[in-house]
Amino acid sequence: MRECISRYGPLVWSIARRFAPDASGEAAKEIFVELWKHAGRYDPRAGSEPAFITTIARRCVIDRLRSAKPRPKLKPSPDSLASSEQHTASERCVEAAIAAGVLATLDPRQRRILSLAVGQGMTHEEIASTTATELGTVKSLVRRALIAVRKRVLQQEDARP
Length: 161
Known about the structure:
- The chain is an all-alpha fold.
- It has seven helices and no strands.
- α1 (2-19) packs across α3 (49-67), α4 (94-105) crosses α7 (135-159) and α6 (124-131) crosses α7.
- The chain is globular.
C-alpha cells in the first residue's frame, strides 16, 4: 500500500483536489480505501495501472459529489478537460498527457459534451438540459467521443517506444 501511495499519490491527490477541493484529503483517503478493496479486479490486459486508478478515483469522487446534500451546481466549461489546471510535473502522467492531446483533436461539440460527462460528472439528462440537446443525441455524442478517444489513445500507445 505504501508503494501505491508513493507512486500514485500525486495522481489521486490531483483528482481528489479537482472534484472535491474543500474535502480533498478525505476524498483521497476514500479513493485509496476503494483501490485497496478493488485491487484484485485490476487486469493489465484491460488497461494501465494509472487508467485503472483514475477510473476508481473518478467514480469515488463522483459518488461523493452525488451523495452530498444539496448537490453543488457545477459550472460547465467547454474545454475543462482539454485545458486542465496547471499541475506540477510529478502530478502528470503519460496517460494524462496523451488524453489531453486526444481531447484537443475532438470536434468542439463532442469535447464539450464529454467534458460535461467526464470532467464535471454530469448525467446525460443534466447535459441535455444544460446544452438544450436531445437526450438521445447527448448519449450518442458521449458514446462516439469515448470511442474516438479510446481509438486515438490506443494508437498513441502503440506508437510509443
